[in-house]
Amino acid sequence: MKICVLNPQSEFPKNEQRRLLNLGQVVYAQTRDELPLKKLLKLSANSDILAIDPANLGGFEKAKKNLNIIIDNLPRLRGIALDTTIVEWVDLEYCQKRNIVVTLIPKKIYRETVAEHTIALLLAAAKRILITDRRTQKNKYILQEGFELKGKTLGIIGFGNIGSRVAELAKCLGMRVIVNNRSEKKITDFETKSLDELLIESDLISLHTTFERQNHGLISNKEIKKMKKGAIIINLADRVLVDEKAMADALLNKQVDTYVYEGEDFIHTPLANLEYAIGLQGFGWYTREALAQAFKIWVDNVISIVKDNPQNRVV
C-alpha cells in the first residue's frame, strides 16, 4: 500500500504521521509550492491512495487538469482524500468512471475560524486598516475616516455553517443582521429578506453561498446598482460569484466602497491595481485549532478508504 501525500510532512502532527505510516509506505511533498508535473508524477508513481491539497497542483485554478493527468498514470489508485471542504477542483465524473473514491473535509470544522476571519475583514474594511497599511508601506499615509459597525446593517447571503456563525458574531457587535438563503431552512433569530431587499438595505454584505454554476455572477451590474452607495462587500465564498468587471466599475464610481475577496490570480482581472479591491490568498481557515481537527479527519478519511468503508465521501 502506497499513500502519496501532497502536503509537507512537517505540517502533520506526529500522531497523524504515525497513523498513516501504520497503513504502509507514505511519501510526502517537501513544500506547499506548485510542483512541476514531472515531479508530481514521480512522487505519486504506483500510489494506491492520494491525500492531496491543491497547492502542489498549482492551486484551485489549475488543479483539475493536473490531477487528471496524475490519475491517468495510476492504474492502482483506489481513492483520493482531499484536505479541502470543496470538490470543484476535482473531476468527480472522471473519478466515478474510474471507480475512485473521493472524500473531503466537512465544512463545519472551519465554521468558527472562517466566521471570525470574516468579522476581522469587515472591521478592517470599515476602520480602513488594510487600506491604511498599504498606503503606509508606500510612504503615502493619509488620515481617512472610517465608521463603526454598531448599528449598521449586515446582509448575509448564504446561511450555512459559516454564514450563520457570522450572523451570531455580528449581532454581538450590535449590528442588525439580515439574511438571504436559497434553502427553505427555517431561520428564527434573524430577519430573512429577498435578495433585492438585502441589497437595498445593507451597509455591508458578506457572501457565504455555495458556488455551483447557477450562482456564478450572482452579484453583477444589476445587483450592484440596487445597493446602498458606499457598501462594503466581503467575498470569502468564491470569486466566480461576482462579476469582476461590474465590481471594478462600481469601485471606480464609488457605488461600492470596498470589495474584499479571496483568489489566486490578482493580475489578470479587472480588479487589478484598484486600491479598494483587496484581493487576498485564502488563509482564514489556517488556524491552529481548525488545522488540528482537519488533519485528524483527513487521516481518518484515508484510513476509511483503506478499510473500504469511506467516510465523508462525495464519490
N-to-C order of helices and strands: EHEHEHEHEHHEHEEHEHEHEEH
Side-by-side strand order of the widest sheet: 8-7-6-9-10-11-12
Largest sheet: 7 strands, parallel
Give the low-confidence spans: none
- Evaluate the radius of gyration: 21 Å
CATH architecture of the largest domain: 3-Layer(aba) Sandwich
Compute the average pLDDT.
Answer: 96
Count the DSSP helices.
11
Q: Which structural category fits the helices and strands?
A: alpha/beta
Quickly name the level 1 CATH class of the largest domain.
Answer: Alpha Beta
**Residue share in β-strands:** 15-25%
How many domains comprise the coordinates? 2
Shape: elongated
Helix content: 25-40%
Taking the alpha carbons of the first and last residues, their distance comes to: 21 Å
Beta-strand segment tally = 12
- In CATH, the topology of the largest domain is named Rossmann fold
Structure description:
The longest helix has 19 residues, at 288-306. The two termini are 21 Å apart. It is elongated and about 60 Å long. The chain folds into 2 domains: 2-104 and 287-306, NAD(P)-binding Rossmann-like Domain (Rossmann fold, 3-Layer(aba) Sandwich); 110-280, Rossmann fold (3-Layer(aba) Sandwich). Helix 5 (111-126) crosses helix 7. The chain has helices at residues 14-21, 37-44, 63-72, 92-97, 111-126, 129-137, 161-172, 195-201, 221-226, 244-252, 288-306; strands spanning 2-8, 25-29, 49-52, 79-82, 101-103, 153-157, 176-180, 191-192, 204-207, 231-235, 256-262, 277-280. Helix 10 (244-252) links the parallel strand 10 (231-235) and strand 11. It is built from 11 helices and 12 strands. With 315 residues, it is α/β, with parallel strands linked by helices. It has a 7-stranded parallel beta sheet, sandwiched between helices.
